[in-house]
Amino acid sequence: MSKDHLVIFTPSGKRGHFPTGTPVLTAARQLGVDLDSVCGGRGICSKCQITPSYGEFSKHGVTVAPDALTPWNAVEARYDDKRGLKKGRRLGCQATVQGDVVIDVPAESQVHKQVVRKRAEVRDIIMNPSTRLYYVEVAEPDMHDPSGDLERLTAALRRDWDLPHLEADLGVLTTLQAALRKGEWKVTVAIHLGDAVFSPRIISIWPGFYEGTIYGLAIDLGSTTIAGHLCDLQTGEVIASCGMMNPQIRFGEDLMSRVSYGMMNPTGAAEMTTAVRDGMNALFDQITGEAEIDRQLIVDAVFVCNPVMHHLFLGIDAYELGQAPFALATSDAISLRASELDLNLHPAARIYLLPCIAGHVGADAAAVALSEAPDKSEDLVLIVDVGTNAEILLGNREKVLACSSPTGPAFEGAQITNGQRAAPGAIEHVQIDPVTKLPRFQVIGSDLWSDEDGFDAAIAQTGISGICGSGIIEVIAEMRMAGILDGPGLIGSAEQTGSPNCFPDGRTHSYLLFDGTAHGGPKIAVTNTDVRQIQMAKAALYSGARLLMDKFGVDKVDRVVLAGAFGAHISPKHAMVLGMIPDVPLDKVTSAGNAAGTGARIALLNTDARREIETLVHKIHKVETAIEPRFQEHFVNASAIPNAVEPFPILNSIVHLPNAKFNSGGDRQGRRSRRARTG
Amino acid sequence: MSKDHLVIFTPSGKRGHFPTGTPVLTAARQLGVDLDSVCGGRGICSKCQITPSYGEFSKHGVTVAPDALTPWNAVEARYDDKRGLKKGRRLGCQATVQGDVVIDVPAESQVHKQVVRKRAEVRDIIMNPSTRLYYVEVAEPDMHDPSGDLERLTAALRRDWDLPHLEADLGVLTTLQAALRKGEWKVTVAIHLGDAVFSPRIISIWPGFYEGTIYGLAIDLGSTTIAGHLCDLQTGEVIASCGMMNPQIRFGEDLMSRVSYGMMNPTGAAEMTTAVRDGMNALFDQITGEAEIDRQLIVDAVFVCNPVMHHLFLGIDAYELGQAPFALATSDAISLRASELDLNLHPAARIYLLPCIAGHVGADAAAVALSEAPDKSEDLVLIVDVGTNAEILLGNREKVLACSSPTGPAFEGAQITNGQRAAPGAIEHVQIDPVTKLPRFQVIGSDLWSDEDGFDAAIAQTGISGICGSGIIEVIAEMRMAGILDGPGLIGSAEQTGSPNCFPDGRTHSYLLFDGTAHGGPKIAVTNTDVRQIQMAKAALYSGARLLMDKFGVDKVDRVVLAGAFGAHISPKHAMVLGMIPDVPLDKVTSAGNAAGTGARIALLNTDARREIETLVHKIHKVETAIEPRFQEHFVNASAIPNAVEPFPILNSIVHLPNAKFNSGGDRQGRRSRRARTG
């Protein structure tokens, strides 16, 4: 006791007194300092690296002598020889305390290390994976006290790692005896630490010390695309990312056509289930191929998806989701074994699906909530995940509301005359000169504007093939700002607008963006029908958001987050000119990128986050737009550009929106007569 | 409060005061009286039948008026009309309390009813199955408060049945929505109530009230035969029983030859696993066919088997069990899903394997312990499960010891010159006249002795083909009593014994039992080699038992239980003449029949019994005969008939064992010279 030394760990600040000869790892464990170890202090895994600091530390009131730790030993020397130990580093299990000492635990030596996210406003991910590796030395069998190999293995795990009662997967039982003997009673095991459904269990075993790692998958299963991130479950690092089209597309582009396919064909739902699971296995092939790893090393996978994808993936007919009251078969989070879904991963791999919020607001929206954490926001944040359906969240620390709104596929370039998916050759940015009222544009694949030198050469490969979703938003907003389009959404004639690019097109006018016909290319124009499609889509989006604001009892929000791949490419100014989103300062509109995918990754790397989102989803107040009378009213108002009744003062302080009105009732008459003709 | 009435339940004696109008079922539940109900008191299931008693009950100090319960109501009348209600019975959920009343709960209305066992000395089985049926009415979906169908189902189950958090099997998730709607939001579910591995979960769902039952299987997976009992999980009744040969027999008759097959052939272990699982599925076909039930209704199955069968069934190579230190891959009980073992039952059916006691003392021995409960015995009981290996248990309330002893297959008629399996035509009982020293015998298939009138006609169909296990024990014991065989195990000559049936056979003598050669039949005799085989087998058995007695610190036991199919046919007197079992009064030797199978059935019907045997197995002291020096000493002594050193006073008080000695060292010399010749 008289020989106790003060040991201070940084950055935690945890401190305690320990007798001479205490290994640093032991001291760390006793103080609850987060210092990793897979081998349990046997100098094998090198996970417990620490950096001792020497000299005077007035802050801690301690002076660390050069001999405060034992000198570099043979185990450390061998490790350094074989793999190299960073300068100043020691192995925490080898260096023992000889005097007062200050010890820094570098980030990579922490179990619950932070995985840094790119954006500043969101919290980092703390590592707390479902499955961890443990190295252990097992007692040999003894005829005088017979017991099973498994029972001696679990006893060793209990003794060395303080683990609770452990089950073993059948795959472990069948390989256990060979592994123990090959490893001479030393093995590494992967243990799934358990959740609400599964008790803690050993799911994999390797003879001796396993030098590799184990992996997890974060999957964003969208109606159109499936995106997967392969993560190292020890470091949190993304090892590979892959995307592919959802093979269900052949059964219908949008969700409702897939629901219909299931209704019209007796085996339809089952076919779609098989298709998406086969697609998933193809994605696993691709991603493990890219990362050059064995798929048996993938032990955990987290899925986020909308409710229809969720049901079809699980093998549940999505019939009920196609009609009121849009009842989900289940809304809570789901834990399964990969084999139950015919997924070719480690046979005992776990599958976790985030909870759904409501029949139209799925696990993908829950993942966005997990990533963007509206429930932790001091200010009131509106989060919009823009896709075929828009999922909308509004909230702050006080409460969170959610709804979905059927925007349709117009924002993705579908149902637009010259619309196309975002791909090389698509017009993605547009500017219209307020004086000449002529357009210039940028095409995906080049940073040059169409009126800049070298543009033709730069796009020679791709050509100019159409307008993508962000392009159509920009051009319509630019048309509105340039006085080519009026508030109600009518394109003026060349005379009315002063733009030579306006031309009559049936009973309305269109606006020419690019005429490639001279060179055998397309003629790309915005028709008034295109404008109507975007008006419908943006009105659906805005009225959903507005409805949540009503329910929250507010008239404005503090900030707007655009999520979804599309959200990353939307220009906030143009979105606001269109009245897609409420009136906020432009610098308060940010993009979260694929927030659903990020949410999946958080849930993969930190199982506490699963409990967190399960709790949050139960607290989120769901609003069903279909049965809210005010939704229709908001929708009608939001059909105008930007809005028939709401003033948008911040927007009006930034841009000038001409007060043109090109129609005097003729359009409505015109449409009525068209209908009469075709009727 | 002033209107409270006294309600007394019999046989429990539980009593309480309840206001006018309280349903009897409600009163029972509040008092914790064991009164069944599947429908939760909705007058549908009729499980809550009770019998009110009227008149004066001085014992309870209460007089029950004729109107103590409400009159017979419409629900009861309808039920009586449709199915018939026993005289005096009421539905506990319909009859309400109107005055003081005494109510009897008949056995069949109890959840934890007793399943009566045939034998008097063993306790009854109390029903407490793994899986139960629950009827429930579920709230319809509400767009204003969206939630999943499953979540509303589990909420209803929590509300009506006070069940904990429930998971749902994937198979339930995929059928849930259709079942709820078809049943108009009324469904019956089967819930597996959970164990150490699985959390409570819904495994099956039926629209409306399901009038059927659910089933479980108790399987005794032996090296030679597989026996299965199909049980009703609500009543405990055995609905059908089936047996079949273990298809693994083609890989080797005994355990060690199968272990060798696995060692010699790279895919050997896997082939044997496939064979036994295929066989199991064939057994399921057979038993469900016989019972005419859908195999999807089998939701639980309990298996007992020896360690080698246990490992091969699970897909574990039994290699380690073939050599010291006989390490089991796992000894604890195992819970799995049927699908993990490719068993064709309900897809979510649970599989439970009892724990193994040691590398040579398997789950079958654990099942015997569960059935025969040595740990609950006041007196010291020796339990012997006689098969190819004998599993031996010795114990009382104080402690229980276990070992196994390699008896070999001689007791089953194998390796005996004229030995055969117990089948029609086999000699099963033998008597030798002490004066004439001539034998008479009984053959399986007839009750007549061979010297009785009509014997030839009775056995005309089968003939006389050989001696089965119990026959060989009887004939050798009879030979010993008649002075044809001496204590060391040598058959005397006709001159020495005075029996004309003794004849020279090589360098020793044989004893003729039956000569059918005149009619083209066999000549059935007992050779001295046969005697040696039985001596080896019985010495192994006895020395195992004696070793346990040493370890227990006793020289005698109070009673002996012979388990196993063979045990049922052994004559206690003859067994004791052979010195197979210790010296006890003959009426203290009983047969437990297939105690392993009974143990499986207990574990199937009462999940508490699973915890019980798991606990007991940990407490059982295992003795490994192979490393106990005294085993050899006991073995040598026990090679004599009955024993070279132990006096067997009780036996000697019943039978006279002649003190003949037919050898004067010649046999030993003879064998030595034979060896020299062949060497």
Automatic annotation (TrEMBL), chains A, B:
The record's annotation in SUPFAM superfamilies points to:
2Fe-2S ferredoxin-like
The superkingdom listed in its UniProt entry is: Bacteria
Task: Please give the name of this protein.
Answer: Uncharacterized 2Fe-2S/4Fe-4S cluster protein (DUF4445 family)
List the PROSITE patterns hit by this protein, alphabetically: 2FE2S_FER_2
An annotated Gene Ontology molecular function: iron-sulfur cluster binding
Q: Which organism is it from?
A: Yoonia sediminilitoris
Start and end of every 2Fe-2S ferredoxin-type domain? 5-109
